[in-house]
Automatic annotation (TrEMBL):
Family, per entry: Belongs to the glycosyl hydrolase 28 family.
Active site: residue positions: 259
Organism annotation: Brassica oleracea var. oleracea
Endpoints of the signal sequence: 1-24
Entry keyword set: Cell wall, Cell wall biogenesis/degradation, Glycosidase, Hydrolase, Secreted, Signal
Entry's Gene Ontology BP terms: carbohydrate metabolic process; cell wall organization
Subcellular compartments: Secreted, Cell wall
Pfam families, per the entry: Glyco_hydro_28
Entry keyword Secreted: yes
Name of the protein this chain belongs to: Polygalacturonase
A molecular-function term among this protein's GO annotations: polygalacturonase activity
PANTHER family per the UniProt record, alphabetical: PTHR31375
Amino acid sequence: MKKSSLFFVLLCLFQISKLGFCLAGSVHTANNNENKRHRFISVTDFGAVCDGKTDDTQAFLKAWEAVCNGVSDKSFLVPLGKTCMLKPLKFAGPCKSSSITFVIRGNLVAPGYTWDVGNFPEWISFDSINGLVVKGGGVKGGGTLDSRGSVWWGSGHAQDKDRPTAMHFNNCNGLRMYNLQHLNSPRNHIGLTGSKNISISGLNLTAPGDSPNTDGIDISKCIGVDIRDSVISTGDDCIAINSGSSYINITGLFCGPGHGISVGSLGRNGEFATVEEVRVKNCTLSNTMNGVRIKTYQNGLGYARKISFEDIRMVDSRNPIIIEQNYLNRGKIEEVSFENSSYQNRGGKNCFYKTESGNGRGVKVSDVRYSRIYGSSASDEAVTFNCNADMGCEDIVMDHVNIVSAKAGQGVSASCTNVRGSYFYSPINCIKKH
């Protein structure tokens, strides 16, 4: 081989080796960057045993302090295969990082006993944390919270105030939560208050159908909440939208058993209450005590308006469509067909309490649209609009509402009191067109 050829071969080999070194260095750098982007702070690094029995509360708080006070984005991790027992605790902000991810790949369980709700009204709470992401294990499994609510459901804790919320988020703007399973809350499973721009998906919330007031998600004083593609099967409202809330979208929800999807109750104790810009779409309500419901107190003030229910399927739901402006007021008691939970130990039926009209008070209900509501009703009355004489209900539209009886050979009816609006292609209606 000539010297020139040998030199050329050696030069090529050098360049190839150099290229390989550069590529290897690039891959190494990329892996390091990837690790930096996904660094976790695990609760087990701070002493959490996570055997389902040992109290891991302090380890969680120490791990949270490290994440919250860190200058770079880090993720809080509950490792896969671990079951961590937690006493009531609060994850508080504000944090130095603009975004914090709370990853639950393992399981969280509450203590198997009750505690003083006056001091600890929630089991797990997050407060003043912007950009918080709470996510479960997804395809890798895990991501389960068991609140052990059965120890709270007896007669000793019959009142709501005697039982804690399982998970609560306050002042958490930009919250994202997805791929979580949550079992057996003592009271409502998830509470959202005073927050903006919330996105929730892939939740599975479960409690017995007769567990008391175990709402799925309660929303209060929130603006911009998007809930989609979730399953809620509990003992009360699947979702309750309370005062101060607006721009709420609920899509792709399976609800049942439970009490359906509710706006309210609004105006309790004479308060001024508001809810507006609510859209519920593409949902199924199966074997629920109520379907889609708006409920207000007669002595309250304020409004519920710009609300739509679209493409809703009812499966053996009692009371599929309800507006009730006389909800639980003081005065004459009138029975209705909503049965109480066996845990509440009150017996008989629920009651609406009505006061005499003429006091000029009420929460005004207007601009409500029911479009393409179909399926079966377990009760004889499929539509109930019970509006008070002072305010009434205005601009109520029924468009392609077609609900049949779940009982073979029977029909269903509708009842309207003090309602103004219109209907289109709806065999079941009682609205007088104006």
